[in-house]
Amino acid sequence: MHIDSFQVLADPTRRHVVDALSRGERQVNDLVAEIGIHQSGVSRHLRILNEAGFVSVRADGQRRLYALKPDRFREIDDWLAKYRSLWEARLDRFGAALEARRQKPEQTKEKE
Amino acid sequence: MHIDSFQVLADPTRRHVVDALSRGERQVNDLVAEIGIHQSGVSRHLRILNEAGFVSVRADGQRRLYALKPDRFREIDDWLAKYRSLWEARLDRFGAALEARRQKPEQTKEKE
DNA sequence: GATGCATATACATGTTTATGCATATTGATT
DNA sequence: AATCAATATGCATAAACATGTATATGCATC
């Protein structure tokens, strides 16, 4: 299906692109200016983001306007839901259930 | 500060480890059995997860018990907040978490 | 203190990946 | 059609990374 979300977002430059796009649709050259790597690099990052479903493109003359698409972000949110009880445990009953399932040889104390 | 969250989670095996730990504290050998790579590999992944702050360790005799730590997950949640408006009309985060939990019993299909 | 079990690390290797440079493509303008 | 502007892609390179094998460390029990 799609490329792995986390692998796509693992690259800081790519996250920079995503961040820039969170402020609205942008054309490639604008991103080049904001991000500071070579144009070919930005294009390739956009290609990856597009193939991964993080962004959409539309042509406007010779320009290409990129914008964020929600689906993959929602997917990450779903993944995160499994772990949300780690810090929201006291608030919902799922967290309580998960807490109860923790096998503890004694009391779990967190330290380092 | 810490290593990059997304870079840490980019590796599918590492997410497998995290997933296993979401069901409770585990010792290294159990993870080796569940995950199916060599023990040295699991140890290295755990080292990375630990240094990144995703897990904690405590010694229990000769065993080392690893467990998830919430902070880095919360950090990802915060990052995601910037993009939640992409798909969220009205629901607040807690509501969304509950909703997501209710929808799917299985969520492990993430690594192809 | 010797032996055995659980976990960690050093080393070598094959693979992936981000990048710049050069070039190709596509669209606009004259 | 010629040229310029915006974007995409092939190639080469260097760095990062995951993995297995072998070995080391740490703990426990005899």
From TrEMBL, chains A, B:
InterPro entries: ArsR-like_HTH, HTH_ArsR_DNA-bd_dom, HTH_MetalResp_TranReg, WH-like_DNA-bd_sf, WH_DNA-bd_sf
Annotated SMART domains: HTH_ARSR (SM00418)
Protein name as catalogued: ArsR family transcriptional regulator
Gene Ontology MF term list: DNA binding; DNA-binding transcription factor activity
Secretion signal, residue range per the UniProt entry: none
Keywords tagged on the record: DNA-binding, Transcription, Transcription regulation
HTH arsR-type domain residues: 1-88
Coiled-coil region(s): none
Organism for this UniProt entry: Allosphingosinicella deserti
Pfam family, one: HTH_5
